[in-house]
TrEMBL record, chains A, B, C, D:
Organism, as annotated: Brumimicrobium salinarum
Bilayer topology: Multi-pass membrane protein
Keywords associated with the record: Ion channel, Ion transport, Membrane, Potassium, Potassium channel, Potassium transport, Transmembrane, Transmembrane helix, Transport, Voltage-gated channel
The protein, known as: Ion transporter
Record keyword Ion transport present: yes
């Protein structure tokens, strides 16, 4: 956690040629541990949630008929606030371009764009998805250190295991394609197995244990193959779990046995240790 | 376990100015290791189960028609016993208020309230839920030490991993909202995707591998997106599992290497340590 | 594994007052590592599988019409062989009663009983289940050491975690009963929520991520509660997994760090070690 | 990884009596780390994917009517390229037979066979499955070291746990057969439980938490048994996960404490060991 805070301080120090109001704006918008920064985060959280709830309710036809004006009003207020925030973010930074083209910068942009586009274009459907993307802004709030640590560990565990997960996904894809092809031949098209892509879709539904039941085998042979896929899917769910679990355990134990005693070479110390657990040598770092 | 028992003894010692009958009642009601306490627990367990079974069967219309009188009789007997128990719990304590407003105290109150309310009000439906809450009383029986230890470990593992699980749930929520919005645009409303909230509901059904099949994509593009959500949901089930698993392993291994330095009180030593990691004191055991 | 074999030898040594033919029969029937014992196991495996396949196919009405005679013939041959085996098991033992009333002994008895009962009684349905029980005999074949070790570890892991799993199951039961009661009030009976037991049945279908779809919420509020149950079920599947995983890891690591060096006290040795890894002292066990 | 590369070099050295063009072909086709080898892999990947996509789309009837000629053309181009590759693989090896009858060799053969067979035979259905098998060729691309390591660990974890998984699968099979038999007796055939095999199929759908809903219990007793199967299936998913997880953890930690004694060759030492656990030899590194 310490490294993270230091980096953020270093960041601010380098920007000493900013005007006072820019520093003030930064403290509010980018600050995580300051009082005003926290208040800003909470207000932002409420606006994001409100805005996403409005997008969702607007799609419910009878609610849209009834509260159309309310929804449009809230939408434009939210868009206004987001636009002000977006402009403040840009003008308060020395190098605004790196923010604009960062992932979160683009998310911020796409949070306000759809409303302005709707004035010109008429494609409500596509704009609706863009407006859903707004929910990604929620990750801004997770800057809070205790969540970031969790997110860091999650991210690292997933990153470390990406090769194994790739192999696993390719193996699963191979299985569903071959078994999907097999079921297309075995089952009659009346049961829903009208093409190989549809059969593969069914195989994915089955192997992941989702099981909609919109397509289901009707012949005894097909049901036998289906049983095999189910048992297989049930057994191999252990594989991604095992991969990620062992990564978590690994990350944890690595964080605990970091450094070597310069006197006796004993390696198995916790990071916080002040004395070697083997020879009693005092560490002076 | 020792700490738990000590605390309970300390609790009783402080209450020395209680009358003998109050101590006797306490021994029966709150006692876990005494003979009478165990007998009380078993009788309580039977009454709770009987009472919940009656609540459930009462909701089956043809059984209610047939055995209405039996159900009402049992209900009032149970309510009577629970009321007596509730009064005894209160009068036998020196500070009854802290019990009354504790979680289990409120559960105890809500276990008897619905029956008395039903004499005055006529809202059977709402009262039925309140009566189901009665089942929470089952946790009283779990006071038995061997279950409490299990519950403690469960609780601690979940508590330790709450930040990671929060990040995980927010990530999942983000995914289902964005993919739900996408599916609302892709799929026709005839397939059940009539609004974004419904589409999000479908996305949750799919990503958690529940798969009712009441709403299911019909277009090839929608089925492709659905396949992606399923594979994703299947892969990321590893994440909560990995989080909790590593916590369990952690709690276990930590419980194995915890002894205290007699010099400085530092607790966090491995069993094999020869010197205190904090003050360098040499262990001579 | 060594202990297991020793025990089996000790068993045979005590039975020295058995006749030679009894020892021979024992070698064939109970022997796991002898040539004849292995051959017997394989033949038994084939007969068990054949017999269970016949029970299953017999229940398919059109196959039963067509091959009725074949099925009955196979059934009686299998019953005959099982009867002979059962008698041989009894007569070759010095204390047959402990076998007869053991779990596997009762399974053996119930494997032959239904056929004889069918001559007297006419309840085909009940007898059919009894005949399915025959499949339990498959566990006889698993006597082979390498599977037994696996089964032992499985069994121990489940045994060690039984208290935690009990707490977990009671918690789940509490949740499904309360949420089932809630859904019964929220949802109309047309959606399938006709009684609390049925609603609890639905809650179990949902929380375990099975999701038949025969009962599914239709009101927005009901769907919101359902979404919560699904996410909850998806998250807490980590709990039993974490419990069992940590037990497995535990059993493994315990088997590895068994005993103490009498010279320097170093504890962290593998069972197979001949010298202390810390001071080089030679173990003379 | 080093061992893998060494072996591959040794392989090539032994083939010194190959002609230059054979070595060149080998470098392209079998090379993983060479520039041309990588380019070849990427082109092969694209062709395989294209070919599988064509097989899948061809099965969609309206697409087949529209683009029939395009599909056939692509199919024959792919078959041509695969044939050339297959011949090159054979002629560039000194011992082509061991390749031809290897698993990947047969996959390569079955990738081109169906097209040629379609000229003679008329069984489109069976040929379609054979063509799906082509997707297995994707594993050729996974030769890349970083994926192979992942695949190796996956493979080893599954191999180490095969006995435990066998015991687990047999136990599950026993449960579904007995509970399937039970449900066949309990439930009316109108609910879909028309025979024991179908009931077992339903039990598999339920215990693996797939839950199609094509067959679902309708009687209260049947639903109670179903609830039990679901909770059971939900709880025991922990078992394969626990098995595989602990294997992963095991492989990892073992990979960390393996160095060899220079005196006796004993391999199984912890990193911290100062003396060989087998012969007492003192390590002086």
């Amino acid at each position: 956690m310490k490294k993270r805070i230091d980096k953020s301080l270093a960041f601010r120090e380098k920007e000493f040629n900013l005007r006072p109001w820019q520093l003030k704006v930064q403290e509010v918008i980018y600050g995580t541990y300051t009082k005003t920064g926290k208040a800003f985060d909470i207000i932002l959280l409420i606006i994001i949630l409100l805005s996403v709830v409005v997008v969702m309710l607007e799609s419910v036809s009878y609610l849209n008929l009834k509260y159309r004006l309310t929804f449009i009003t809230i939408e434009w207020i939210v868009t206004g606030l987001f636009t002000i925030e977006y402009i403040l973010r840009i003008v308060s930074l020395r190098k605004p371009l790196s923010y604009i083209f960062s992932f979160m910068g683009l998310v911020d942009l796409f949070s306000i764009l759809p409303s302005y586009l709707s004035l010109m274009v008429d494609g409500t459907a596509a704009l609706m998805i863009l407006r859903s993307i707004r929910f990604l802004r929620i990750f801004r709030i997770l800057r809070l250190s205790r969540y970031m640590l969790g997110a860091d560990i999650l991210g690292e565990a997933l990153k470390n295991s990406r090769h194994k997960i790739t192999v696993f996904l390719i193996s699963m894809l191979t299985i569903v394609i071959i078994l999907g092809g097999l079921m297309y031949v075995i089952e009659p098209s009346e049961a829903g197995f009208t093409s190989i892509p549809r059969s593969v879709y069914w195989a994915i539904i089955t192997i992941t244990t989702v099981g909609y039941g919109d397509i289901a085998p009707v012949t005894p042979l097909g049901q036998a193959v289906a049983s095999f896929i189910m048992l297989f899917g049930y057994a191999i769910i252990a594989v991604p779990t095992g991969i990620v679990s062992s990564e978590f355990t690994n990350i944890k134990s690595e964080g605990m046995k970091a450094f070597e005693c310069p006197n006796c070479g004993e390696k198995d110390h916790k990071k916080a240790a002040k004395f070697c657990r083997s020879c009693g040598y005092e560490f002076k770092d």
